[in-house]
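call fold(seq) -> tokens
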Amino acid sequence: MMQKYDPSESVRNLSKLNFSKVPELTLLFWIIKIAATTLGETGGDAVSMSMNLGYLVGTLIFFIIFLIAVTVQIKAKKFRPFVYWSTIIATTMVGTTLADFADRSLGIGYAGGSSILLALVLSSLAIWYRSLGTVSVQSLDNPKAESFYWITIMFSQTLGTALGDWTADSAGFGYVGSAILFSSLIAGVCALYFWTRLSRTLLFWSAFILTRPLGAVVGDFLDKPKNHGGLELSRYVASAALFLFVLVCLLVFPNRAAKSSH
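ret:
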């Protein structure tokens, strides 16, 4: 006998679906991510350099903003695009000033800073995996997983700044050459995603980390002096334009939550 269709059953099944508090991984996500990381570079430089507050004071300011944003993000009951992306931007700005403080003020250097930060990113992922058995973004439906996620992002954003400066300055690629380098590496990760069966989680974190140095060198290209290979645009104007671009993306295009694996 054919079972009678009950519309309420579909509603009950839908209500059982869990959603993560991060965006689904679409092309829009990566476009906003690159724009946000570029904004982090120009915004961080605007505070530490244009306002002459220095790297340490800039780091303290942005770290406080990050703590406020991440607290709101973790306490939120569901995915809120503006809260999530505000937290991402805060991590990029504190990552910019923190990396510059370590590399330049403390004299660690780009190579040393990048090595230390890479170790911190890998350690964060390893501890996260040992604690929860996964580092997938689809598992971000509880405060503990979210805390690991944002700690890892903080380290990765700082690492990205150091990597971008290293390739552009010490390695001699320049801003445009570095942008081409990191764009090519991201394209390679995309190819692996579409044409191999490599771990999607591994590929996500690879792409996520690589978008940061791309944003860093693009941001430097926009605001650094022309005799250093930049366009010498106002950091305030560049930051405002990038902020408006991110805002329009959030207002015009749908930004949905990723489905949780739990």
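The chain has one domain: 24-254.
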